[in-house]
Amino acid sequence: MLETTTLKFLKDLTKNNNKPWFDAHRPQYEIAKADFYALVEKLIPAIAKFDEPIGQLVTKQCVFRINRDVRFSKNKAPYKSNMACYFNQAGKNGLGGGYYLHIEPGKSFAAGGIWVPEPSVLAGIRQEIDYNFADWKRIIENKNFKKTFTEGLRSNESLVRPPKGYDENNPAIEFLKMKSFIVSKPFADSDLQNKNFVTGVAKTFNSMKPLIDFLNMALH
């Protein structure tokens, strides 16, 4: 679970996203950061129960910095209004599919899959879906999967025309046009402060593991 003070800090940061305010409230940030790190430290062994390699990670390999990269963005706010972490065999910088947790007041969620993979990786995933479409359907049509991820499989965007080498009549064309493969489940602020929050997030990640295994199979 997370402390009320962590959510309050993020709410206050959203209203005061500037360096002078952040510097003046750095002690509160350090407390919120420590609280989030403690949560991640509990999540790692919980995920490792069903995805063993994750257990080799340490917290700092999984947590994203709160500072934003504003070099190429019109939004020059220096800080993120959330805290987030990503669990992949290689940590937050891993290229394959993995598990993502986003903590933001009123907008928290657990997600997983792969987001905008490199062209070679995307081509491999499309080929895997095409070759093993029956296995793919068993994953995304599983009752527990559909119950957990009510919005279904999502993509940041999809192609209008079939990707090169595929026909419009391919039974998997809906998925072959995707550029990302993501599922997610929202969590209310009250969920974050529940003593069973870690268990709930781990259960959500476990539900998406067959999808992540399939995506990562395409990398090999």
Structure class: alpha+beta
The CATH topology annotation reads as: BirA Bifunctional Protein, domain 2
Q: Quick one: CATH class?
A: Alpha Beta
**Spatial strand order of the main sheet:** 1-2-3-4
Largest sheet: 4 strands, antiparallel
What amount of the residues lies in strands?
Answer: 5-15%
Instruction: Tell me the number of strands.
Output: 4
Helix content: 40-55%
Cα distance, first to last residue? 36 Å
Instruction: Give me the Rg, rounded.
Output: 19 Å
Low-confidence stretches: none
Can you walk me through this structure?
With 220 residues, the protein is of the alpha+beta class. It has one domain: BirA Bifunctional Protein, domain 2, CATH 3.30.930. 44% of the residues lie in helices and 11% in strands. It has helices at 4-15, 19-24, 26-48, 119-131, 133-140, 143-148, 173-176, 189-192, 197-217; strands at residues 83-87, 98-103, 108-114, 181-187. Strand 2 and strand 3 (108-114) form a beta hairpin. Helix 1 crosses helix 3 and helix 3 (26-48) crosses helix 9 (197-217). The relative contact order is 0.15.
